[in-house]
Design a protein that fits this description.
Distance between the termini: 49 Å
Number of strands: 16
Radius of gyration: 20 Å
Order of helices and strands: EEHEHHEEHEHEHEEEEEEEEEHH
Shape: globular
Largest sheet: 12 strands, mixed
Number of helices: 8
Strand content: 25-35%
Structural class: alpha/beta
């Protein structure tokens, strides 16, 4: 397990940033590579611990799981004499987590599932974690319950503020998700006083969603999606069609409430009951949608190319 530790010349917090606990979730690997290459890391206060690949076995085999088919992120806090997953979890807790003051864990959606950049955290009676989530700077924060056996739950038991960043799809690099992750980590480091220089933020507001829900396919067939990630949907809006192979019959998939699309399947073939759209509930959904659109435009690499061409013509 590769671990990179950077000690600043001055004392400060100890921040752990880790990725690929699920071995096929690789966006975080590239995010950490870019954070380590960032020029402000040379003037660090405190300690930055990065683990770009926690689940090396899964990363090499392009699998979410360990060779024993266990999910490492359901095996914490682990034990010294348990399964491979349990032993790895125990090593991470004793050798790394015990020394940390704050943690950011980087994830993506599953295979063939895409996630909008978002922060997930348990924010109940935890103003410090909420402040970190807002400092990360993505427009979507979701207040979520803890999962049994997760690193997030184990950190909570030790009162360590913990952010879980979700963005993109397994086994694929997503440039917008990567750029958002790098900016978010640097924003948290600035909030913690670990770095003094920070790019001036634009006027994005971060709004917390208290609940999310999956919209499931009403029938089996071929999925034709209408609503991309970040879309504002209202109750009764059309999300997709599910049709038969000959195109003779199509069933509409409708939103059952108002919110923002934060996750979706990329598979064209679905079965009845499959989760196809993940929607975050927001009373101010239209306002959040505008923030998301502006944020995405700023990070989109296509806009870089347009700007470069405009500058060269000028």
């Amino acid at each position: 397990m590769p671990v990179h530790i950077i000690h600043g010349r001055k004392p400060g917090p100890c921040l752990l940033v880790c990725a690929a606990i699920h071995g096929d979730e690789i966006n975080g690997v590239e995010i950490i590579r870019r954070v380590l290459a960032h020029k402000t890391i040379n003037n660090l206060k405190g300690t930055l611990i990065t683990i770009p690949i926690v689940n090396v076995f899964g990363f090499v085999s392009q699998s979410r799981y360990l060779p024993d088919r266990r999910d490492l992120n359901r095996s914490f806090p682990g034990s010294k004499k348990g399964s491979m997953a349990s032993r790895l979890a125990n090593i991470l807790m004793e050798e790394i987590v015990e020394h940390c003051s704050h943690i950011i864990d980087l994830h993506t959606g599953a295979v063939a599932r895409d996630n909008l950049p978002q922060i997930r955290a348990c924010l109940v009676d935890d103003t410090e974690t909420e402040a970190l989530a807002r400092a990360f700077g993505v427009p979507v924060i979701i207040n979520t319950e803890l999962r049994d056996g997760s690193l997030r739950e184990a950190a909570r038991e030790k009162n360590i503020p913990f952010l879980l960043y979700e963005a993109g799809e397994a086994l694929r690099f997503d440039e917008v998700a990567i750029r958002a992750g790098v900016r978010g980590i640097l924003g948290v480091m600035h909030h913690l006083g670990m770095r003094t220089k920070a790019r001036k933020k634009k006027g994005y507001e971060t709004v917390i969603s208290k609940s999310t829900q999956w919209i499931r396919s009403p029938t089996s067939g071929i999925l034709r999606s209408i609503s991309p990630l970040g879309t504002l949907v209202r109750k009764g809006d059309l999300l997709a069609y599910v049709g038969d192979p000959l195109g003779e019959v199509e069933t509409k998939v409708m939103s059952s409430f108002c919110g923002i699309v934060i996750g979706k399947t990329n598979l064209p073939l679905v079965h009845e009951g499959d989760a196809i759209y993940h929607i975050a509930r927001y009373p101010e959904a239209e306002e959040v949608s505008n923030y998301i659109e502006s944020y995405h435009d700023e990070l989109d690499p296509l806009n870089d190319e347009i700007a470069d061409k405009s500058n060269s013509l000028a």
